[in-house]
Fold this sequence. Notes:
The protein is an alpha/beta fold. It contains six helices and 14 strands. It has helices at 36-45, 66-73, 154-167, 200-206, 214-221, 231-239; strands spanning 2-8, 13-20, 25-29, 49-54, 76-80, 90-92, 97-100, 103-109, 118-124, 133-137, 140-141, 144-145, 177-180, 198-199. β7 and β8 (103-109) form a beta hairpin. α1 (36-45) packs across α2 and α3 (154-167) packs across α5. It is globular. 48% of the residues are buried. The mean pLDDT is 94.
Amino acid sequence: MIFRPFFDFEHGCAAYLLGCGGKGLCAVVDARESDVEQYEAFARSKGMRITHVIDTHVHADHRSGGPRLSERVRAQYCLHRDADVRRPFTPLDDGQEIELGNTRVRVLHTPGHTPESISLVVTDLRRGPDPWFVITGDTLFAGAVGRPDLPGEARENAARLHASLHEKLLTLPDDLEIYPAHFAGSACGVGLSGKPSSTIGFEKRFNGLLSAGREEFVDATCVVGAKPADFEAMMEFNRGNASA
């Protein structure tokens, strides 16, 4: 497998390119609009074709490069089917598997940060049948979890987030690496680590929110700071409002 993180340390954002070098097929996850040419150039340097461009959710803190990248390379632009957007996209469902040669990507619907949030469990069949890592979007960070207030109904979304964590992500193997969409510097969570990756087991041990009961978790995660800068404008752009 070829796996390439793209970290923006100024804004605490992460995007990922992953796929099968042998078959020359890859996907880009959580692309930023400002970095579209970088993803194209890296894929080209490895002799890979980008077939899927996936957003783990409709982003609130930066302009997504997903639609633009998918148009430039003629790839599928993918979101969970619950996404509230005004542009065509390929709908993803819980449990669906995307095949990229020997690289397989299993979709987990993990609502809470937003209704359409997904995580992506990635397996390299050349290493074996067990998953290698999970891209967690804004559901689980290193040292924190996604904030539930941005779509509104913060307490209801916090309860959904608690269920997504305990029924989906925390059932994965402890040694599984996690790669979130953000780290310190982002306003999409509170108390994010400056470390851009972690493991399920490390978070179980040291991320205090994951050991909290449901009501304690809801109370704690609803205490958030200011919304991301230009929140409304970012949401309108990423939903496909032509005037944004």
